[in-house]
Every structure is written in structure tokens, then in C-alpha cells.
Amino acid sequence: MPAVTVTDITSLARVPEPGPASVDREVRSVTTGPSGFEGEGFPVRRAFAGVDLAALDPFIHMDQMGEVDYGPGEPKGTPWHPHRGFETVTYIIDGEFEHADSHGGGGNITNGDTQWMTAGGGLLHIEKPTEELVRTGGVFHGVQLWVNLPKARKWVEPRYQDLRGHQSVLLTTPDGGVLLRVIAGDVAGHQGPGSTYTPMTMLHATVSPGARLRLPWRPDFNALVYVLAGDGTVGAGRRPISTGQLAVFGPGDTITLDGAGKQESRYAEMEVVVLGGAPIREPVAWGGPFVMNTRAEVLQAFEDFQAGRLGTIPAQGVPAQGVPHGDVGGELL
Predict the structure, then answer these.
(1) Does the annotation flag 61 for ligand binding?
(2) Binding site annotation covers 40?
């Protein structure tokens, strides 16, 4: 871990050191994501569990999938299920996943690839390990993020973006101690490949032991750091953080984090996902696989699914009946 690396980090563009007038964001909270199982039984960590949606806005939910080393025949996925009202961003760090949806999108993503699916007005989709991964087993590790859509965009036509790992913008810090992979948004004038309806930034950073990242960050965005692996600190006050924990930052224009000088034997470096976006500040009604603005809209989505109005799936699969399966079940808020 991870798949996307560089031979000579000194060849990459540098993120500039924030100036003396920059304002470090203070850490408001550090929470630990509980472990669970999703779909047909693959292990996940619920990265945002226990955090107020207002602090996450425009994000709704995030699962760290794995890291797990499967034996032959063990890899698992999800059955066909519906979505409406938001976008799913599936980033595969190690392993391989196969996607398909009722709107014609899909394909295989592996080792640094990202599948960006805009559910919009509604569709059905499936996520499963490839036949090769099922046959041989192997390491599987990734992240799935849910990005809310504003009311004016909730009914857009579904779309699919296939972002290959080599398309991510690679950057480093002035001393070369951190490798940044920009998946979406702008970091110091460098634009990631993902096209977003909601203004946001998503990146994966590898922080060498003892290295520091001081990252310029749009003051109108929120700021979240989730630790995929390793130990370190967040904020200028160096608050401890470790694997499976999420830091929520307050206002400012700079994110600071440090890798621990010595990592445990399983991890050579600290791996983090950094997220931020422009808050939508609209009511959120979330029920299972549907994220809308009102309870009535969520109930309508369930009704539309049951009536077959969210699309048609290939003959080899049948969507769940009754209450639909979702990547996570949120209560109807």
C-alpha cells in the first residue's frame, strides 16, 4: 500500500509553504470509526460515525473498505441496489473491484483508480470483486465516499467517471517528505482529474516518519483528515491521531499534520485522506441508499425503486426486494 508511487519524489511539483499570515485550522474533534461489515460481508470502518452532518457538509458518509488479505474464494461485494440524490466516489488503493449500473456506466477499478458515480435522479448499481480476485484472493483496500448534491442538482442525469490512478496529480512538500495524490479539486493551483458538481477537494497523502504537511486550504471549505494507516498528529497543537480516526478542523486557511517519527511495524508511513468542500447548507433527509432534502422525497425514492422506476438491470441479476440494500443504512432523518 499504496499502488500509486513515484521513483523520484524530488521530480514532483512542490506545494508552497503557507506564508506568515496563514491561519492554521484548529482541530475541533478526533473520533474513531467503528468496524462493521457491508454488502455480502466485506469489512469496513465507518469513518464519519458519530460526527454531526453539519460538520461534514457537503459529505454524507465514508467507509474504509479493508485493508483485508483475502484467501481464494473469500472476496465479497454488494448485490444490485439503488441510489438517488448524491454521488459515490470509490477509490481503490489495493486490489480490484468491478462496477456496473443501470445507466450504462461501470468497469473495473484497481490499484489507485477511482470510480465517480453520480446517482442524481436515480439508478441501480452493483459492486463486486472480479472473478480473478475471487479465484486467487489477495489484498483489498479502498475508500468509498458519499458526496451530497444540492437540491438543484439532485435530479441530474446519472453519469460515471472512470479516473485511472495515473491521472491523479502528484505533488510533494518542499522537503519531499510527503507524497500527495490529488483526485479532485485544486491544491495550490494543481487540479485533480475528478469533475464535481459540489466544489470540493479530495487527496490521498503518504507522510514519511517525522515529516510535516502544511497544506494551503480554501477558507470557504470545511476540512477533514482521515487516517487510513499509521500514527501522527493533526493541527499546530499536534493532537495525536491514528489508524481509523477522523479529525474535523475549524476555520482557517492551512491544514497541518505530522507523521510520527516511528511507525508500528505494519506501516512504514502514515496514510491519510484529506477532504474539504463548500457546505451546501440545505436540509438533509437520509434513508438507506437515498439522500434527499425532505422525508417525503426519500419515501418517494423507496416507492420509485419498488415500482421499478430507477432503471433496469442486466438479466443475470435481480435487485433486492422489500427494503433495498445500500452501501450503508442511514436512518430517515
Answers:
(1) no
(2) no
